[in-house]
Specification:
The structure holds 2 protein chains of 2 kinds. Chain A is mostly beta strands. Helix content of chain A is 9%, strand content 32%. The chains are: A mainly beta, B mainly alpha. Chain A: Residues 1-25 are annotated as: Disordered.
Chain lengths: 215, 669
């Protein structure tokens, strides 16, 4: 894991009051529009070990509203002839727009805590999250960004492709190296399917950044 | 005999040009009885009839009426007959001017205004009434001359009107305020002269005085927080309460004007009228006023827009009040007046400008079909409003990614508007295009097939800087994450030399967009980097020059990202960036990159650090020699000093850079 113990040990600052100090996370270039990530999702079941190669690309980012979106491409899906691309939307846990408690998608607070605690970088936050979902935390200067990614629709295949996007991902982005870890949650699928992605630079000898602006 | 002469003239003219020219002859008659009769007849024939008004204006009847008015007003005769002539001539002129700009123009050209003003001091109330009414009709038009309130005599005149016992005269005073009061200085001058207090007292007057007062108050308080404070404090808050009360008046127009007055207060001073009750009430009232088939219904969407524009809380309330469905239902009606059509589209645009939930509702109603139809409307105002609506609805990456706009229904008519004869339509169409081309699927080919790129490129060369700016903005978005073929196509159309001149455009905002466009051009596959080396690297040189000479962070940020992206290419690319950023010979000049690393703007520092990271990217053959050059230019030590940068992203990227530096130090020692 790319997470460093030293970085997780410093607990984030608390708000001085419940209604102030909520600031959006600063823009992170590695999590900006156009950035690509690749890795795997472990979909192993009791019967067999299996992992799909996965590519992710960020297509939209609105930190003010805690919003992120992009596409996820699964490459070696057994029942599909082509890579399967889905469009997902993300909620950034900024404690202003979203807290650590999901409050939907069939996820209880216990489910939330069970998944978040899988991320070592979360341990420093646990005690406060248990109280109120982390409402009183200021994560604006934390080196990890926690998110939930929910796939919304299939981009290139029909809904009859035999795959489901019913669940969602608990995600942790490391601002240090741009790596992403996640756990898929769907009460009807294998538990804790792990997503592991690394920032890619697509054949370049360095990092490159695009931008667009909506009006 | 005057009578028989007139009769014979009438007979002959009837044969020649019909009964209309007979009227002209009778108005010019030396017999004032004939004139009076002709005035009455004229007045009755033109009331509410624009066609008749226009034909009489063309026949030159207005100067004839104005001449009668002038002769009697200046004669100071108070006989009943002359008073009748004054009343009828003033009324006829008022009728010409009522809701008809060509009529207003003719009345003004005939020099009638000074004589109408003379009537206001006439001893006969009927004459005063007629003069005031007629002037009010004139002052309801934009063509009427502005009254300069900063001149003492004008202010005194206005106050004398507002202090009059005559309802029509006070109404005239209010119309002059509504028509002429524009600048904040004028608004303040009116308050200091006691106009606001006078208008507040008129709220207790007749229904017509009340309406006039409400409209004038809204005009004076708009963007004038001093006036709002004075008004709210007036009569211990009773003035504000009475306006709130008037939102329940039985007269539709009064309810409308009271709501406009409250909107002016709210929009000017955010500390007033913030409670949920009044906000909800205003939203519901204005939605209800849309049902009026008349003038109030035409104006209601504009007032609704000003209520919700830029205010998420009110947009939420409006959504809950079913505003999108209601506005959509109005939009569906056939034969909408262009003004109402425009207003409804703009109101929907404001509703969808911020909230995704509003956009979802809008799209679920298939309202885009109507917007698409509006793109080809005869009225340029409607076409502009349709584009603005499309821009606001498409301000949603979720819907853009779903391909909701890049389709046959929207793109072809929108692209055609890029060639519209009206610049405001072109600008609005460009802003919608700018959003819609943010499409990361293959659908963007539709835009190219429709000739969209050609149009955008042509507009990027326009003499009008707003068109250039918006065209480049759209091209920049179109270029974002496009594949190489698409990028190459756009680049060929634009050409390297024209891009280089746009980087050095006289307008800083154009420069910024041109650089952002090139930044996107050189992102993605490595081949695209080669494009900026076309024509002997004219683009890269222009970027370098602009980084040297510009003085705005936004330009530096985009320019630096161009270089940073190029620096993520191969050795040749990296060396070219070094050439731009680090002086070859030690001539004492500070390297550009050092300036950016020391900037107070974190976005600039991060772009600068990424450039260093890319230039010293490990396992590239000349990375070490670049590191040495950077070291010698003082850049490495600058980066080292940034290890505790207050911006976390900068700090973490500095850490990456230092990690790379360490590999060189390890290797060199």
């Amino acid at each position: 894991m790319p997470v460093r113990a030293a970085e997780t040990s410093a607990p984030p600052q608390h708000h001085s009051g419940s209604n102030c100090g909520h600031t959006s996370p600063p823009p992170f270039t590695l999590l900006s529009v156009g950035q690509g990530f690749s890795g795997t999702q472990n979909v192993s079941s009791l019967q067999k070990e299996e992992a799909w190669r996965v590519n992710v690309r960020i297509q939209g980012c609105d930190l003010e509203n805690g919003y992120l979106c992009g596409t996820m491409e699964a490459l070696n899906v057994p029942m599909a002839d082509t890579p399967v691309v889905t469009f997902w939307e993300g909620e950034i846990v900024d404690t202003k727009n979203y807290t650590f408690f999901t409050e939907k998608w069939e996820a209880t607070h216990d489910d939330d805590i069970r998944h978040w605690t899988k991320f070592p970088s979360f341990s420093a936050l646990l005690s406060r999250v248990e109280v109120d979902g982390g409402k009183s935390l200021d994560l604006s200067n934390y080196k990890y960004i926690f998110m939930r990614w929910k796939e919304q629709y299939f981009v290139n295949v029909g809904t009859d492709c035999g795959l489901t996007i019913a669940g969602f991902y608990y995600v942790c982005f490391s601002c240090s190296d741009g790596s992403i870890n996640g756990f898929y949650y769907d009460p009807n699928s294998s538990p804790f399917q792990k997503l592991e992605l690394k920032s890619t630079n697509e054949g370049r000898l360095g990092f490159s950044f695009s931008s667009y602006e909506l009006r | 005999m005057p009578t028989s002469a007139s009769a014979s003239a009438s007979a002959s003219s009837t044969t020649a040009t019909g009964p209309n020219s007979d009227l002209l002859i009778r108005l010019n008659s030396p017999d004032s009885q004939v004139q009076l009769k002709a005035l009455r007849e004229l007045k009755n024939r033109i009331i509410g009839n624009r066609t008749k008004k226009l034909s009489f204006v063309k026949l030159g009847l207005v100067p004839a009426v104005a001449a009668i008015l002038a002769s009697k007003a200046q004669a100071h005769s108070h006989s009943d007959h002359d008073c009748n002539l004054l009343v009828q001539s003033a009324a006829a002129l008022g009728s010409f001017a009522c809701g008809f700009d060509a009529g207003v123009r003719a009345v003004l050209d005939a020099g009638a205004c000074p004589n109408l003003l003379l009537l206001l001091s006439h001893p006969d109330d009927k004459v005063v009434d007629a003069g005031a009414r007629s002037l009010r009709m004139i002052y309801q038009s934009n063509l009427a001359p502005k009254c300069d309130f900063l001149q003492d005599k004008n202010m005194e005149f206005l106050l004398s009107l507002l202090n009059s016992e005559n309802e029509n005269v006070t109404g005239l005073g209010a119309s002059i305020v509504i028509h002429s009061c524009e600048t904040i200085t004028e608004k303040k001058a009116l308050c200091h002269a006691g106009v606001l207090k006078k208008l507040v007292s008129l709220l207790q007057g007749s229904p017509s005085q009340r309406d006039n007062s409400l409209e004038s108050l809204a005009t004076i308080m708009k963007d004038n927080d001093e006036a709002v404070s004075e008004f709210v404090g007036c009569e211990s808050g009773r003035a504000l309460s009475s306006v709130i009360e008037l939102t329940k008046d039985r007269h539709l127009r009064t309810r409308f004007l009271a709501s406009r007055c409250l909107i002016a207060i709210r929009n000017t001073s955010s500390c007033y009228l913030q409670d949920m009750g009044i906000k909800t009430k205003l939203v519901h009232l204005l939605l209800e006023l849309h049902d009026d088939p008349g003038q109030v219904g035409d104006e209601a969407p504009f007032a609704f827009s000003s209520l919700i524009s830029q205010k998420v809380d009110l947009q939420k309330i409006a959504l809950e009040a079913n505003a999108i469905d209601k506005l959509y239902n109005h939009l569906q009606k056939n034969h909408l007046h262009p003004k109402r059509f425009q207003g409804l589209l703009l109101a929907l645009a404001d509703l969808c400008s911020k909230l995704e939930s509003c956009r979802s509702r809008f799209l679920s109603l298939q309202a885009l079909n109507l917007v698409s139809e509006a793109l080809t409307h005869d009225s340029s105002d409607v076409r502009t409003a349709a584009c603005i609506c499309l821009r606001c609805v498409s301000r949603s990456i979720k819907n853009l990614c779903a391909g909701n706009f890049m389709n046959e229904m929207i793109v072809p008519p929108l692209v055609r508007l890029l060639d519209d004869p009206s610049i405001s339509v072109q600008v609005a169409a460009l802003s919608a295009v700018g959003n819609i081309v943010v499409d990361f699927t293959t659908h963007r080919s539709l835009f190219l097939q429709c000739g969209g790129v050609k149009q955008l490129v042509q507009l990027s060369r326009s003499m009008d800087s707003t068109l250039r700016l918006n065209a480049l903005w759209a091209l920049r978005n179109l270029m974002c994450l496009a594949d190489y073929i698409c990028k190459q196509g756009i680049f060929m159309e634009l050409t390297a030399s024209s891009l280089a001149s746009l980087i050095c455009d006289p307008e800083p905002f154009v420069q910024e967009q041109a650089l952002a466009l090139i930044r996107n051009l050189v992102d993605g596959c490595m081949n695209s980097v080669e494009l900026v080396f076309a024509e002997d690297g004219i683009i890269l040189d222009a970027v370098g020059r602009q980084l040297q000479s510009a003085s705005r962070d936004e330009i530096w940020i985009q320019g630096l990202y161009v270089l940073s992206n190029v620096a993520s290419g191969n050795e040749v690319h990296k060396e070219a960036v070094m050439h731009q950023l680090v002086p070859q010979a030690d001539n004492g000049a500070q390297s550009l990159i050092l300036k950016f690393l020391q900037s107070n703007e974190s976005q600039l520092r991060i772009a600068a650090v990424w450039t260093i990271v890319n230039l010293t990217f490990p396992s590239t053959p000349n990375a070490f020699s670049r590191f040495v050059k950077l070291h010698n230019a003082g850049i490495v030590s600058q980066v080292k000093s940034m290890a505790s940068d207050p911006c976390l992203d900068v700090k973490l990227r500095v850490k990456s850079a230092l990690g790379q530096f360490k590999t060189f130090s390890d290797g060199s020692t």
